[in-house]
Structures are given as structure tokens and as C-alpha cells.
Amino acid sequence: MAEKTKLLSDILGGGEQVPPHLARSVIEERLRSAILDGRLAPGMALRQQELATLFGVSRMPVREALRQLEAQSLLQVVAHKGAVVAPLIGEDAVDTYALRVLLESEALRQSIPLLDAEDIAMARGYIAELENETRHAEIGRLNRLFHMSLYSKAPNQKLLRLIENELNEEERFLRFHLSSMGLGKLTQDDHIGLVDAANDKSVEDAIRILERHLNNGAKTIKAYLSRQSAE
Q: What are the residue boundaries of the HTH gntR-type domain, all occurrences included (predicted)?
């Protein structure tokens, strides 16, 4: 127990007393960051009592934080192990891209008529950063922020939360597997086309570009999974 707690302490920090009203959000954010950047590896078990001891809190905020991370597909509950860090990508990843087409197309439909010049400039700024970025961790983060900048004015907040959860999952995968997928960096052609269509208020053109973009992503993921199963 002591050795494992020390390991978690090395990964997550801790040792300080977390204020009770902040405990759930602090624990969630520490775990989320460690999962996204790979410090907490897929398959690693996260025990409620060990985390409670590490952060000096009761098990209740730990349990709530773990539930939030499970809802974001970053953790899975496994029999006899409890909460474990989820695989980088699941077998249903291709289906996830099909779902993203539906969700993100609707978000574009709602958001584009409400986007202003500042929103468009922000999206173009993310493209410029992506053009010059080679660190996979930053590419994943910027890709998520780019897409959300175009969806941000959609009034359906539940729709946006669902989309951000899916983008968080993709962000994690992109951090580790761009090179494995044969992608040194993300191509920006579709991103540029999306922003141009959004700027012109051409909703159907933007949706068509988005569908092509996501379907190409699904093909890449499918090829990656096929290679993994063959190894």
C-alpha cells in the first residue's frame, strides 16, 4: 500500500490538505491530466482509499471524481479491480467517429449562424498554431480547441458536452499515436476549409467538409486497429 501510494504521489503530487469544497474538482483534474499525458498508463488501477489517503480527504469526493472520469471514457470499472485507466482507444472507435459526424454536424448547424469575427479569428489562430506544432500532446489539445471554437455558439449545451467528451478521448489518442498512424502532424486543409465555410455562413458546405474530415479519421483509426490486431 505504502509503495503504491508513493507511486501515485510521484505521479499526481499531493501531500497537501485539499479544501473539502474543492476536493472533487482537484482530484478529477489531477487524474485527468495524468491520464491524458500518459503518466497514468492504460490498465492501471485507481483505488479509492489510496487516493483519499493521498489527498487527505474522505472517499466521497474521490468516488465522485472517478465517476466523472468514467463518464469521459478515461476510466473503466473492471470486476475485482475497480476503476482502471481506460485503453487509449477502444474497438468501438470507428462507431464513435460515426456518432461524431451526427453530433458535430448538428453543432455546426446551430453554431455557424451565430459565430462572429472574433470566433473566426480564434479558429484561424488555432490553425496557425497547429501548422507550427510538432509536439503530439499540443497537437491533440489544439485540435480539440479548434473544433470546439467552431461549435461554441451552439445553444444546446448538452450537445456540446457530449462532443467535448468525444474530443477528449480523441485528444488522448492523438497524443500517443500520431506517429504510429503514420501522421507526423495533422493536415490543415480540412480545418482551413471548415473555417472558410463558417466565415461565409455556408452551413451545408461546412458540414460536408466536416463529414469528409471525420470519415477520413475513421479510416485511419480502422487501419491502425487492424495493424495492432495483426501484431
A: 21-88
Residues 6+ positions from 19 with CB-CB distance below 8 Å? none
Count of CB atoms within 10 A of residue 80's CB?
Answer: 5
Looking at this protein, which amino acid is placed at residue 47? R
Residue 36 has pLDDT above 80, yes or no: no
Whole-model pTM? 0.70
- For residue 57, the Cα-to-chain-centroid distance in whole angstroms is 27
Q: Where are the domains of the chain?
A: 2-85, 93-230
CATH architecture, domain defined by 93-230: Up-down Bundle (1.20)
CA-wise closest residue to 89 among 31, 28, 42:
42
Q: How confident is the model at residue 211 (pLDDT cuts 50, 70, 90)?
A: very high
What is the distance between the alpha carbons of residues 132 and 142, in angstroms, rounded to a whole number? 11
pLDDT per residue over 96-131, tens digit each? 888 999 999 999 999 999 999 999 999 999 999 999
Q: Give dist(CA 62, CA 184) in Å, integer.
A: 38
Identify the sign of the CA torsion 164, 169, 171, 174: negative
